[in-house]
Design brief:
It is a single chain. This protein starts with 6 loop residues before the first helix and ends with a helix. It has a single domain, classed as Trna Endonuclease, Chain: A, domain 1 (3-Layer(aba) Sandwich). It is 35% helix and 24% strand. A 6-stranded mixed β-sheet has the order 1-11-10-9-8-7, sandwiched between helices. Strands 4-5-3-2-6 form a 5-stranded mixed β-sheet, covered by helices on one side. A hairpin with a 4-residue loop joins β2 and β3. With 250 residues, it is of the alpha+beta class.
Length: 250
C-alpha cells in the first residue's frame, strides 16, 4: 500500500506562510520504493509534440500499476485492430525519465532526447514548465497521485490512491512568485468559484522566482522553494450546526 507523507498534516493546515525547500532527489526515489519495483529495462516513449506516447503493453501496464501514470487512449488502425497507447503529460514523462530513470524519450525521428533537449521542448509547449514541474515534484514527494486537472480550472488534481478509487482531494493552482497580484487574484477567484460549486478544496502552490537558464540538471530543481496555502470551501450549514451545538451546551 502506498504511504502518504504528511497527508493528515496537509489536511489540517489552512496556511503555511514559510517557504518550503524542495525535497532532495533521493527523497523522491525513496518515495517510489513504496510501489512495486519498476521494470529492469527502461521503458521507451515517443514525444508526439504535446505529450509522450507509450505503445508497448509491458510499459503501459508497469506505469499504470506503479504510480497511476498517464491515461489510456485507443486508436483503430483497421476494421479489426485497435492500437492502445498510454499518454503521459510532459511533467510525468520528465519525472519518469530524469528522476526515476525509468523512461527513455525519443522524438518522431527516433532520436533520443537528452535532459536539455527535452527541457527546451517542454518550455516551448508550456512556458511555465519549470514552475509546474517543481510543483509536481513537491506533490510527489508528499505521496500524492498527481493528474492534470481538466475539470476544475486548476493545474493539477491530486488523489490519495487514484481517480478510479476516490474523487480528487484538492484542486492545485500553481503560480510564480513574481506573478502580478491581479493575475493571482483572478486565477484564485476563478478556481475557487468552481471548487465551491463542486465541493472541493484548493491547494495554492507559489514557486519561487527563477530563470530557465538556472536549470542545468534535475538536481537544480532542489534550489527552488514553494509556499503553500490551503483554501477550504465555506460550509455555512456546518458552521451553523456547530454554533447551535455550542448554544445547546450552555
Amino acid at each position: 500500500m502506498q504511504g502518504y507523507i504528511d497527508y493528515n498534516e496537509l489536511l489540517n493546515k489552512t496556511k503555511m506562510i514559510n517557504k518550503v525547500s524542495m525535497e532532495k532527489i533521493a527523497k523522491f526515489e525513496k518515495h517510489m520504493q513504496l510501489f512495486p519495483p519498476l521494470a529492469d529495462k527502461t521503458i521507451r516513449g515517443i514525444f508526439n509534440g504535446l505529450s509522450v506516447e507509450i505503445s508497448g503493453k509491458t510499459g503501459r501496464t508497469i506505469l499504470q500499476q506503479n504510480g497511476k501514470f498517464g491515461y489510456s487512449k485507443s486508436l483503430r488502425t483497421s476494421r479489426r485492430k485497435v492500437k492502445k497507447y498510454l499518454i503521459l503529460e510532459i511533467e510525468e514523462a520528465f519525472y519518469l525519465a530524469h528522476v526515476l530513470k525509468a523512461l527513455e524519450i525519443y522524438d518522431t525521428k527516433e532520436q533520443l532526447l537528452t535532459f536539455s533537449n527535452f527541457l527546451s521542448i517542454c518550455l516551448k509547449v508550456d512556458e511555465n514548465f519549470i514552475e509546474n514541474f517543481a510543483a509536481y515534484l513537491y506533490l510527489k514527494s508528499k505521496g500524492w497521485i498527481v493528474k492534470s486537472d481538466v475539470n476544475y480550472g486548476g493545474k493539477y488534481a491530486i488523489y490519495r490512491t487514484g481517480p478510479e478509487y476516490f474523487h480528487a482531494s484538492f484542486i492545485v493552482l500553481v503560480t510564480k512568485f513574481d506573478s502580478s497580484s491581479i493575475a493571482i487574484l483572478k486565477a484564485n477567484y476563478r478556481v475557487q468559484r468552481i471548487a465551491d460549486i463542486n465541493n472541493k478544496d484548493v491547494l495554492h502552490l507559489e514557486v519561487s522566482k527563477t530563470t530557465n537558464s538556472e536549470i542545468k540538471s534535475i538536481e537544480d530543481f532542489q534550489g527552488l522553494q514553494i509556499s503553500e496555502v490551503v483554501r477550504r470551501k465555506f460550509n455555512f450549514l456546518k458552521v451553523l450546526s456547530i454554533i447551535n451545538s455550542n448554544n445547546n451546551k450552555r
